[in-house]
Protein 1
Amino acid sequence: MSDQDSTPEGVPHPRGIRSYVRRAGRTTTGQAKALEELGPKYMVPYQPQPADLAQVFGRAAPTILEIGFGMGEATAHIAGLMPEKNFLCCEVHPPGVGALLKRIGEQNLTNIRIIEHDAVEVLENMLPEAALAGVHIFFPDPWHKARHNKRRLVQPHFIAKLVPRMQAGAYLHCATDWEPYAQQMLEVLAAQPHLRNTASAFAPRPAYRPLTKFENRGIRLGHGVWDVVFQKA
């Protein structure tokens, strides 16, 4: 993985792509406590049918989908900056789910809901058309080897599934620290007729996306980070 908050994602299987790769990890005592105490309130069970998002969040508000939040550092920061928005967050790594629940409790965040399930299946089965005001895909697994590039999440067939779930004017924000994947993101999104780039090429990092500790360390070492922000016409 390229970032401690990286998105685990992208393995082909008989039914299509997945948004993740399961990886080993130990759930800490604090994360386990958060899962037990806060999980029932902030976790949403996966169901293979459209969800009523107003019911899920207890209010009607613009909903942002986050695919793969890692340990939840950026997710909690952004949700705290935007209390007027709902954040529906998908992650399959239990320690990451526990870590975000712990942040929810510590920061008294009420606008996050977590689905511990493959984001591609959530997208296909739980999200109605035009349900999303925005989508965040931060530091997805870059699958460095050329023979594995097909496992990357941001591909034409995935974007074709995502765009109908986005409202007119909704945005899609991707970020990566692997330049070949950044170029692929730019090409794939530019080829989607219903999306337009908000910049001439790569976008400046939006102020709401924080620099993680890992990212700051990479920048000090001269590593690049690329943001891509497109909007649905």
Note: The two ends are 33 Å apart (CA to CA).
Protein 2
Amino acid sequence: MKYGIVLFPSKRIQDFANSYRKRYDSHYALIPPHLTLKEPFEADDQQIQEMVKELRKIAAETDVIPLTVTKFSSFYPASNVIYLKVEPNEPLQHLYERLHSGIFAAEPEYVFVPHITIGRDLPSAEYADVYGQLRMQNVHFVETVDRFHLLYQLENGSWTVYETFHLGGKEQE
């Protein structure tokens, strides 16, 4: 089965992202707005049980994560993906690194750029028009995320939560 690990931002940020995703993101119906921590990977039932134990440990040892969303950005020219930029920070980077070491060790396909995708699979002319308009907008959200999620993919391509892991940072005590 295919799994992935993500952070879901608050409803406020999800609503903002979805106001664009419903028009510009071909994956709109498959998964809510999210920040990918670990790209999709295959695991069998035994492997996933071991991973869940390790994810619980990682969550208990990880502080809550500040999320600051600052602007629209793009991966152009590598791809016509438009996203909400999430400012990198040490707790987020630390969690990402933990999810790519030990039993999760795998060389990531891309450099970690924290983001929430709002547009993909756009023809070049539409991409240029949409991105040209969006990049002029002011965007500013600040919040704290206290959990991450292990998702699995259903046969129809959509993703659903397998388990949620609460971060055990000092602010939860």
Note: The helical segments are 11-24, 45-60, 90-98, 124-134.
Protein 3
Amino acid sequence: MAVAPDHLDRLYAETDDPWNFRASPYEAARFAATTAALPKARYGHALEVGCGNGELARRIAPRCAAYTGVDAVEGALAAARAAVPRARFVRAFLPCPLPEGDYDLIVLSEILYFLSEGGLRELARQIDGRWPGADVVAVTWLGPSGNPIEGEAALRCFSGATGRRAGTAPPGDPRHRIDVFAPLGGARAG
């Protein structure tokens, strides 16, 4: 990652909601736009990389038979487990092997700009190699993040590393964009 684990731990040291996901009208609208951009109404198994405190998971998990969230911060995962008790949550610090699962939806919501260029390429390689039939939805903050790689540059790097075609969801809030990456070669997960 381009961001150190202790930086992430500090973000969650005082609260399990450092970005005000629960009360912010912007975040509520972003979560609604993200779920609206999902290509299918139902999924077998979703993987959300960088699930944070589970606020987006609360909206996605009901559309899935199974849901797995990954985050690097134990405090975030504890909040996510409380938000979506039936889901599976795994602590992992990227780049690393993603949890096993037969995923047909992979959500990368405001996580790409936390990774290095090498981490972004590895993430794309792993997703393409292990889950070629999955829909991949990337949500990218377009403003300054203070991270070594900003949102648009991180999205360009990921897009260049994946073999998937992307379409951008209809523009909504100009502070973020939502890209939907199609399954590889027309393959579609079960």
Note: The CA atoms of residues 50 and 71 lie 5 Å apart.
